[in-house]
Structure prediction request, 410 residues.
Amino acid sequence: MAAKKTGKPDKTRYQQIIDLNDEKINVLILGTSGCGKSTLINALLESEVAQTGVGSAVTDTISVYEDEKIPFRMIDTVGYEYGFLRQNKIKSDLAKFCVEGIKKTELDKLIHMIWFCIDGTTKRIDQKTLEYIRSVTNDWKDVPVIIVFTKSYSELDVSENIEMASEAVRTYNRRHSRRPLNVVDIIPVVAKEYLINDTTIVPRRGLDTLVTRTNELTPEAKRVANSTIKEIDIKLKGGAANSIVAAAAVAAATVGAIPIPMPDAPVLVAIQTGMLKAISKTYGIGDDSTANKIIDTTLKVGATTAIGKSLLTALKAIPGLNVAAAVLNAAVAGIVTFAAGEVSKTMFERVYSGEAERTSVDYEKEIMELYNRYLPAIMKKAEEFSNSHDGKFTVSDLTKFIISLISNKK
Ligand SMILES: Nc1nc2c(ncn2[C@@H]2O[C@H](COP(=O)(O)OP(=O)(O)OP(=O)(O)O)[C@@H](O)[C@H]2O)c(=O)[nH]1
Ligand SMILES: [Mg+2]
Prediction:
C-alpha cells in the first residue's frame, strides 16, 4: 500500500473531488436584478426552466440548471441590488452552497467560472459592481470571469460598453493588484429577440460566442477550481481541528487549576493524546504509523524539552503578574495543550496537503521548530492578556483567552 510508505492519507477529500471533477464545469451567473440572467439561461437551454420577469427579484437565491444540450451547468442567482442585507444573504448562501459541495462531494456546487451579467442598456459599470464579484466569491480567487453585456440591442452601446468595462477592470486590478479579477472576456448578448408590436427589432446575438468561449476556457477553469478546492478543503479541516484544540486547551486549563505536577501530569497527557488523535482523524490520516509518529513526537517534545518546563518560569516573569499558583498551573496546562494542538495541526496539514510526502521527514526536528515558533508568539499574547487584566485574572478569564487564541490567530 502506497499510503504506508509515503505517510500520505489514503486519499484526501480534495483529491477525491478533483478526480471526479472531470466532466461538466459550473458557471455561476451573477448580476443585478432584472439584467436578464434567467432569460439567458432559458435561451441557452431552449426552454423556460428559469423563472423570469420584472418587478421584485424573481429568481430564488441559487438554482442549478443543466441539460445535455449544453456541456456545462449554469448556477442562477438572484439579482443583487436589493440592499445590503440581500447582498449578504447571497454571499452567505453561496458560501454555504460551496462548502456543502466540498463536504459532500457534490460536484454541481463548485464554482469554475463566472458570467457576470451587466444590463447593456444601463451604460455604466462602477468599481462597486466589480467588488461585488470578488466579495461574493471570495474563496474562489482566480476563477475566470466573463463579463456578459445582456440586452445588447444597440451596436453603438456595445462598443462603448466593452471599452468602459475594460477600463473599469483595469482600474480595479490596479487597485487590487494582490487579488485581481481574472476577467477573460467581455461578450455582448441578446438572449431573446427584442420585439416591438410583434416585429423583431433586434434578433438574438452572442449566444454561440458565449458557449464557445466557455468551452474554450473550461480546461483553465478546471485547473483553477482544483487548486481552490484543495485550499478550501484544507481550510475546512483546519477549522474542525481548531475546535478540537480549543476544547482540549480549555479542558487542560480547567484540570490544570488543580495543583498537579506540571506539565507532564498523566491527566494532561490523556487530554492531549485525545486531542491529537481527534485531529489526526479530522485529517483522515489513514496511515497509523505516520499519525502515531506525529502524536508521540508532539507529546514528547512538548513535555520533555526545555519549552514545557520553562513555561512556568516564563509566565512567572511576566511583569505585574499577580495570580495564585493554581491559576499559573492552569495557564501552563492550557498553553502547553494549545501549542501541542497547533504543532500537530500544522504537521497533519502538511501530510494531508501532500507537502510532507517524503519518506524521510525528520518529525522531531520539524516539531521542535514549530514549538519554537509558536510558544514565543503565545507567550507574547499571554503577556498582553495579563496586562489587559492588570496582572490579575481567573481561570475563567484564562479559558476565554485560550479561545481567543484560536479565533484570532492568522
Ligand atoms: N427582449 C429581451 N428581453 C430581455 C432580455 N434579457 C432580459 N429581458 C427581460 O428583462 C426582464 C428581466 O429578466 P430576467 O431574466 O428575469 O432577469 P434576472 O436577471 O434573472 O432577474 P432576477 O432573477 O430578479 O435577478 C424580463 O422581462 C426579460 O424578458 C433579452 O435579451 N431580450
Ligand atoms: Mg432571475
Summary: The chain is about 60% helix and 10% strand. Residues 234-408 form one domain. The chain has a mean pLDDT of 86. The two ends are 36 Å apart (CA to CA).
